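sorry for the late reply, my laptop died twice this morning and i had to redo everyting from scratch. anyway the thing you sent over, i finally got around to it. pasting the sequence first so we're on the same page, its 414 residues, then the predicted structure underneath. double check i copied it right bc i was rushing
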Amino acid sequence: MTGRRTPLAVVLVHGAAALVTVACLGWTGWTGVREGGTALAFGALVAAGELARRTGPGSEREPAPLGAAGALAYALLGQNGGQPTAHGVPQVVAVVVAGALAGAAPLIAQGRGPSPDHMARRVLTVAFSAVCFQPLCDSGRIDAWTVRGPFYAVVLLLLLGLTGLCDAVIAAAMTRARTRYPYGPLLRDELRALLGIGSAVCATGVVMALGVAVAGLWALPVFCVPLLLTQLSLRRHALIRATYAQTITSLARATEVAGYTPHGHARRVAVLSRAVGRELGLSGPALTVLEYAALMHDIGQLSLVDPVPDGATALLPTAEQRRIALLGGAVVRRTGAPAEVAVVVECQADPYREQPLSARIVRAVNAYEDLAGEDAGAGPLSALERLRLGTGHDYQPEVVESLARVLSRGGVVL
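ok and here's the structure:
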């Protein structure tokens, strides 16, 4: 596989994170570490969080929630056991980076370490929250504004909300640079993720900072427990979702095993449909429905006595396409899949103006796969041209052009 040139936006983010890291480490090394016991406790917490990082399904959003919560808590720490702190912004970043590297070192040796994107985002978001909060404490403005009691917690939550928004903006920008998908849906996906593990991380960070301010460092292990339980629950939920997706994939392969469709056809249609959906602005649950429908769009062929040559349903008469689509929708409804998936499968042969967007995408991508297949006699350009000729009734022009853009970039980003 040939290497790809790193996009400029990603290089800028990595460069900014590296510059902040070097500056903060240098400043902390020059001036010395203040409140060494506190720095060691939070550094150890971040390191433990990195060691306990999640792998496998559902780990792409925040693989080290305990480390992230500890880093945010240290950035928002204004008191320790009732006494004001004075560690400052550079030491916050330096301690978080040192703890993250210490915890990630064994994983890096095993090839399971954090990605550069994840580390860059961690550095920039922690630096952002520390810059917003630490100067307020050091200057005494919080005391001057009499921000105490519940108002103090509200200030911390607001700062964490801004930090979460900062992280979402950076993450969406990096994904946009790598995939060239529309920025808006990517940002919505990142903000939606904040309602899951992101909200647990932010809440735990606030509770840790408030607990240490009152009870001292003994509060850290106590307030780690809820986040660890949340992490375990989310991991189990992710495993359940992964198992369900594997079940759908296995059902989709039934047509291939039975010889009704070419090997890998359903998977190719699903991956390409998801890329086109991204290009058209779909995100979150809509993409999941699209992928499941694309995987199972040919399952109605199992009811046929004689298989369609090469499984190319796009070449069949409309009445036969509609019959296969309705049979496929009936099968999908029996699998327990969401009703939206069955609707997409059932209306595959309808005029595109009567279809939801997901059905339009699956129909166009499936037709392209049928027409551009090895045994279909038409290449990719000829297949796209035939799709364009059918935009008056069968295929939505915007979907066909989005498919063309995805293909012009060399396919999809897996």
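The first strand starts at residue 79 and ends at 80.
thats about all i looked at so far, will dig more tmrw
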